[in-house]
Design goal:
This protein is of the alpha/beta class. It has a domain of 179 residues: NAD(P)-binding Rossmann-like Domain (Rossmann fold, 3-Layer(aba) Sandwich). β5, α3 and β6 form a beta-alpha-beta unit. α1 crosses α5 and α2 runs parallel beside α3. The longest helix is centred in the N-terminal third of the chain and has 18 residues. It is globular. It starts with a strand and ends in a 9-residue tail after the last helix.
Protein backbone atom coordinates (compact mmCIF):
# COMPACT_ATOMS: atom_id res chain seq x y z
CA UNK A 1 0.00 0.00 0.00
CA UNK A 2 1.29 3.44 -0.94
CA UNK A 3 1.50 6.12 1.74
CA UNK A 4 0.71 9.83 1.48
CA UNK A 5 1.46 12.60 3.97
CA UNK A 6 -1.04 15.46 3.74
CA UNK A 7 -0.17 18.86 5.24
CA UNK A 8 -2.92 21.37 5.81
CA UNK A 9 -5.20 18.38 6.36
CA UNK A 10 -7.75 20.20 8.51
CA UNK A 11 -8.33 22.97 5.97
CA UNK A 12 -11.04 23.15 3.30
CA UNK A 13 -9.04 21.32 0.61
CA UNK A 14 -7.00 19.16 2.99
CA UNK A 15 -10.06 17.28 4.25
CA UNK A 16 -11.07 16.40 0.69
CA UNK A 17 -7.51 15.32 -0.11
CA UNK A 18 -7.50 12.92 2.85
CA UNK A 19 -10.82 11.45 1.76
CA UNK A 20 -9.76 11.15 -1.88
CA UNK A 21 -6.48 9.39 -1.19
CA UNK A 22 -8.01 7.05 1.36
CA UNK A 23 -10.79 6.12 -1.09
CA UNK A 24 -8.11 5.28 -3.68
CA UNK A 25 -6.52 2.78 -1.32
CA UNK A 26 -3.64 4.87 0.01
CA UNK A 27 -2.53 4.93 3.63
CA UNK A 28 -3.15 8.53 4.72
CA UNK A 29 -1.03 10.36 7.29
CA UNK A 30 -2.54 13.74 8.13
CA UNK A 31 -0.61 16.61 9.66
CA UNK A 32 -2.77 18.57 12.11
CA UNK A 33 -1.79 21.52 14.19
CA UNK A 34 -4.47 21.06 16.85
CA UNK A 35 -5.96 17.83 18.21
CA UNK A 36 -9.42 19.37 18.48
CA UNK A 37 -9.70 19.89 14.71
CA UNK A 38 -9.12 16.41 13.28
CA UNK A 39 -11.83 14.20 14.75
CA UNK A 40 -13.58 13.54 11.43
CA UNK A 41 -10.56 13.34 9.15
CA UNK A 42 -10.40 10.40 6.74
CA UNK A 43 -6.90 9.48 7.89
CA UNK A 44 -5.18 6.31 9.05
CA UNK A 45 -2.73 8.28 11.16
CA UNK A 46 -2.85 11.83 12.50
CA UNK A 47 0.33 13.61 13.51
CA UNK A 48 0.08 16.72 15.66
CA UNK A 49 2.95 19.05 14.87
CA UNK A 50 3.80 22.65 14.03
CA UNK A 51 5.21 22.78 10.51
CA UNK A 52 6.80 26.12 11.40
CA UNK A 53 8.99 24.20 13.88
CA UNK A 54 11.21 21.85 11.81
CA UNK A 55 12.19 19.77 14.84
CA UNK A 56 8.55 18.76 15.36
CA UNK A 57 8.54 17.15 11.89
CA UNK A 58 11.56 14.95 12.51
CA UNK A 59 10.83 11.34 11.60
CA UNK A 60 7.22 11.96 10.60
CA UNK A 61 7.73 10.99 6.95
CA UNK A 62 9.51 7.67 7.31
CA UNK A 63 8.03 5.23 4.78
CA UNK A 64 6.04 7.96 3.00
CA UNK A 65 5.84 7.84 -0.81
CA UNK A 66 4.20 11.20 -1.45
CA UNK A 67 3.76 14.53 0.37
CA UNK A 68 0.85 16.78 -0.60
CA UNK A 69 0.90 20.23 0.95
CA UNK A 70 -2.22 22.40 1.01
CA UNK A 71 -0.60 24.29 3.85
CA UNK A 72 -1.05 28.03 3.83
CA UNK A 73 -2.89 30.82 5.58
CA UNK A 74 -5.33 33.43 4.33
CA UNK A 75 -5.57 35.60 7.44
CA UNK A 76 -2.37 36.21 9.35
CA UNK A 77 -3.00 35.47 13.03
CA UNK A 78 -1.25 34.03 16.09
CA UNK A 79 1.81 36.15 15.35
CA UNK A 80 2.68 34.24 12.16
CA UNK A 81 2.56 35.56 8.63
CA UNK A 82 2.72 34.35 5.04
CA UNK A 83 6.50 34.00 5.06
CA UNK A 84 6.32 31.93 8.24
CA UNK A 85 3.73 29.49 6.88
CA UNK A 86 3.30 29.65 3.09
CA UNK A 87 7.06 29.79 2.63
CA UNK A 88 9.07 28.58 5.64
CA UNK A 89 6.70 25.90 6.92
CA UNK A 90 6.57 24.40 3.43
CA UNK A 91 10.36 24.58 3.21
CA UNK A 92 10.49 22.63 6.50
CA UNK A 93 8.13 20.02 5.04
CA UNK A 94 10.19 19.74 1.87
CA UNK A 95 13.45 19.32 3.77
CA UNK A 96 11.96 16.58 5.93
CA UNK A 97 10.67 14.89 2.76
CA UNK A 98 14.16 15.05 1.25
CA UNK A 99 15.68 13.65 4.44
CA UNK A 100 13.16 10.78 4.40
CA UNK A 101 13.71 10.13 0.67
CA UNK A 102 10.09 10.79 -0.27
CA UNK A 103 9.62 10.33 -4.02
CA UNK A 104 7.43 13.35 -4.82
CA UNK A 105 6.24 16.60 -3.24
CA UNK A 106 2.97 18.24 -4.34
CA UNK A 107 2.22 21.88 -3.54
CA UNK A 108 -1.10 23.69 -3.94
CA UNK A 109 -0.25 27.12 -5.32
CA UNK A 110 -2.32 29.95 -6.89
CA UNK A 111 -3.40 30.48 -10.49
CA UNK A 112 -1.80 33.50 -12.22
CA UNK A 113 0.81 33.78 -9.49
CA UNK A 114 3.24 35.33 -11.97
CA UNK A 115 0.87 38.31 -12.24
CA UNK A 116 0.40 38.68 -8.48
CA UNK A 117 3.85 38.42 -6.93
CA UNK A 118 3.45 41.91 -5.47
CA UNK A 119 0.73 40.44 -3.22
CA UNK A 120 2.35 39.17 0.02
CA UNK A 121 0.33 35.92 0.17
CA UNK A 122 1.29 35.03 -3.40
CA UNK A 123 4.90 36.20 -3.06
CA UNK A 124 5.53 33.75 -0.21
CA UNK A 125 3.98 30.85 -2.13
CA UNK A 126 5.86 31.72 -5.31
CA UNK A 127 9.17 31.84 -3.45
CA UNK A 128 8.53 28.36 -2.12
CA UNK A 129 7.65 27.07 -5.59
CA UNK A 130 10.98 28.34 -6.93
CA UNK A 131 12.82 26.57 -4.11
CA UNK A 132 10.83 23.37 -4.65
CA UNK A 133 11.50 23.31 -8.38
CA UNK A 134 15.26 23.62 -7.86
CA UNK A 135 15.41 20.94 -5.16
CA UNK A 136 16.34 17.28 -5.58
CA UNK A 137 12.77 15.99 -5.15
CA UNK A 138 10.28 15.36 -7.96
CA UNK A 139 7.43 17.84 -7.69
CA UNK A 140 3.97 18.75 -8.90
CA UNK A 141 2.61 22.29 -8.54
CA UNK A 142 -1.17 22.68 -8.55
CA UNK A 143 -2.66 26.07 -9.47
CA UNK A 144 -6.44 26.15 -8.87
CA UNK A 145 -8.68 28.98 -10.03
CA UNK A 146 -10.52 29.39 -6.73
CA UNK A 147 -12.48 27.31 -4.25
CA UNK A 148 -16.25 27.11 -3.94
CA UNK A 149 -15.73 28.13 -0.31
CA UNK A 150 -14.27 31.47 -1.47
CA UNK A 151 -17.38 32.21 -3.55
CA UNK A 152 -19.48 32.35 -0.38
CA UNK A 153 -18.47 36.01 -0.03
CA UNK A 154 -20.69 36.80 -3.02
CA UNK A 155 -23.57 34.92 -1.42
CA UNK A 156 -23.06 36.87 1.80
CA UNK A 157 -23.32 40.16 -0.08
CA UNK A 158 -26.47 38.98 -1.86
CA UNK A 159 -28.06 37.98 1.45
CA UNK A 160 -27.36 41.51 2.69
CA UNK A 161 -29.31 42.81 -0.31
CA UNK A 162 -26.70 43.97 -2.82
CA UNK A 163 -23.59 42.67 -4.60
CA UNK A 164 -20.84 45.19 -5.29
CA UNK A 165 -18.59 44.62 -8.31
CA UNK A 166 -15.64 46.55 -9.66
CA UNK A 167 -15.59 47.47 -13.33
CA UNK A 168 -18.15 45.94 -15.65
CA UNK A 169 -18.33 42.55 -13.95
CA UNK A 170 -17.06 40.68 -17.02
CA UNK A 171 -13.93 39.06 -15.57
CA UNK A 172 -14.37 35.29 -15.66
CA UNK A 173 -13.72 32.50 -13.19
CA UNK A 174 -14.42 28.77 -13.08
CA UNK A 175 -14.12 27.91 -9.37
CA UNK A 176 -13.91 24.31 -8.25
CA UNK A 177 -15.35 22.26 -5.40
CA UNK A 178 -12.78 20.84 -2.99
CA UNK A 179 -13.77 17.24 -3.74
CA UNK A 180 -13.38 17.77 -7.51
CA UNK A 181 -10.04 19.49 -6.97
CA UNK A 182 -8.78 16.67 -4.76
CA UNK A 183 -9.64 14.15 -7.49
CA UNK A 184 -7.95 16.31 -10.13
CA UNK A 185 -4.83 16.58 -7.97
CA UNK A 186 -4.72 12.81 -7.56
CA UNK A 187 -4.95 12.35 -11.33
CA UNK A 188 -2.34 15.03 -12.09
CA UNK A 189 0.14 13.39 -9.72
CA UNK A 190 -0.55 9.93 -11.14
CA UNK A 191 0.17 11.35 -14.61
CA UNK A 192 3.48 12.74 -13.36
CA UNK A 193 2.58 16.34 -14.22
CA UNK A 194 5.07 18.98 -13.13
CA UNK A 195 2.42 21.72 -13.13
CA UNK A 196 -1.37 21.67 -13.45
CA UNK A 197 -3.77 24.62 -13.74
CA UNK A 198 -7.17 23.36 -12.59
CA UNK A 199 -10.64 24.89 -12.69
CA UNK A 200 -14.20 23.75 -12.24
CA UNK A 201 -16.76 22.73 -14.88
CA UNK A 202 -18.63 26.07 -15.12
CA UNK A 203 -17.16 29.39 -16.24
CA UNK A 204 -18.98 32.46 -14.93
CA UNK A 205 -18.44 36.17 -15.21
CA UNK A 206 -18.52 38.06 -11.93
CA UNK A 207 -21.89 39.40 -13.05
CA UNK A 208 -23.12 35.83 -13.66
CA UNK A 209 -21.87 34.88 -10.20
CA UNK A 210 -23.76 37.74 -8.57
CA UNK A 211 -26.97 36.84 -10.41
CA UNK A 212 -26.56 33.20 -9.42
CA UNK A 213 -26.47 34.20 -5.77
CA UNK A 214 -29.74 36.11 -6.09
CA UNK A 215 -31.32 33.23 -8.04
CA UNK A 216 -30.46 30.79 -5.26
CA UNK A 217 -31.89 33.22 -2.68
CA UNK A 218 -34.95 33.80 -4.89
CA UNK A 219 -34.38 37.54 -4.71
CA UNK A 220 -34.43 40.26 -7.34
CA UNK A 221 -30.83 40.98 -8.38
CA UNK A 222 -29.37 44.21 -7.04
CA UNK A 223 -25.87 44.72 -8.41
CA UNK A 224 -23.83 47.91 -8.17
CA UNK A 225 -20.83 48.43 -10.45
CA UNK A 226 -18.04 50.54 -8.98
CA UNK A 227 -15.32 52.22 -11.08
CA UNK A 228 -12.30 49.94 -11.25
CA UNK A 229 -10.08 52.83 -10.19
CA UNK A 230 -11.54 52.38 -6.68
CA UNK A 231 -10.24 48.80 -6.61
CA UNK A 232 -6.80 49.96 -7.64
CA UNK A 233 -6.87 52.76 -5.08
CA UNK A 234 -7.89 50.33 -2.34
CA UNK A 235 -4.94 48.12 -3.24
CA UNK A 236 -2.57 51.03 -2.70
CA UNK A 237 -4.14 52.18 0.56
CA UNK A 238 -4.86 48.86 2.29
CA UNK A 239 -1.31 48.06 3.43
CA UNK A 240 -1.05 51.52 4.98
CA UNK A 241 -4.38 51.78 6.80
CA UNK A 242 -5.69 48.25 7.48
CA UNK A 243 -4.43 45.67 10.00
CA UNK A 244 -2.29 42.96 8.47
CA UNK A 245 -4.93 40.26 9.04
CA UNK A 246 -7.39 42.28 6.93
CA UNK A 247 -5.04 43.81 4.37
CA UNK A 248 -3.45 40.49 3.39
CA UNK A 249 -6.53 38.59 2.17
CA UNK A 250 -8.13 41.77 0.80
CA UNK A 251 -5.06 42.46 -1.36
CA UNK A 252 -5.26 38.96 -2.78
CA UNK A 253 -8.98 38.94 -3.54
CA UNK A 254 -8.96 42.48 -4.97
CA UNK A 255 -6.02 41.61 -7.22
CA UNK A 256 -7.46 38.29 -8.38
CA UNK A 257 -10.81 40.02 -8.93
CA UNK A 258 -9.21 42.30 -11.50
CA UNK A 259 -8.30 39.51 -13.92
CA UNK A 260 -9.72 36.36 -15.47
CA UNK A 261 -9.18 33.32 -13.24
CA UNK A 262 -9.94 30.44 -15.57
CA UNK A 263 -8.20 27.12 -16.16
CA UNK A 264 -8.97 23.81 -17.89
CA UNK A 265 -12.24 22.47 -16.44
CA UNK A 266 -12.42 19.45 -14.17
CA UNK A 267 -15.10 17.83 -12.02
CA UNK A 268 -18.88 17.84 -12.08
CA UNK A 269 -20.07 19.76 -9.03
CA UNK A 270 -22.05 22.96 -9.64
CA UNK A 271 -21.73 26.17 -7.68
CA UNK A 272 -25.52 26.61 -7.44
CA UNK A 273 -25.80 23.26 -5.64
CA UNK A 274 -23.04 24.32 -3.25
CA UNK A 275 -24.84 27.55 -2.44
CA UNK A 276 -28.09 25.63 -1.90
CA UNK A 277 -26.34 23.30 0.53
CA UNK A 278 -24.97 26.27 2.46
CA UNK A 279 -28.46 27.72 2.81
CA UNK A 280 -29.84 24.36 3.98
CA UNK A 281 -27.12 24.14 6.63
CA UNK A 282 -27.91 27.66 7.82
CA UNK A 283 -31.60 26.85 8.13
CA UNK A 284 -30.89 23.69 10.05
CA UNK A 285 -28.55 25.46 12.44
CA UNK A 286 -31.17 28.14 13.10
CA UNK A 287 -34.05 25.59 13.27
CA UNK A 288 -35.87 27.25 10.39
CA UNK A 289 -38.26 25.12 8.28
CA UNK A 290 -36.41 23.56 5.36
CA UNK A 291 -39.47 22.61 3.31
CA UNK A 292 -38.85 19.83 0.80
CA UNK A 293 -35.06 19.86 1.06
CA UNK A 294 -33.71 16.32 1.33
Amino acid sequence: MKSVFIAGATGYLGRFLCKEYQSRGWHVTALARNSSHHGDLAADRVIEAEATWPESLSGTMEGIDLVVSALGITRQTDGVGYWDVDYQANVNLMEEALHSQVARFVFVHVLNADRMEHVPLVAAKAAFVRKLQTSDIQSTVIAPTGYFSDMADFLTMAKAGRVWLFGNGQHRINPIHGADLAAAIFNAVEDGAAWANIGGPETLTQRDLARLCFDVLEKQPRITYLPDILRRLALRLLPRVAPRRIAGPAQFFLTAGGMNMTAPPSGTRRLADHFESLLVQERRSSNEPIGDDP
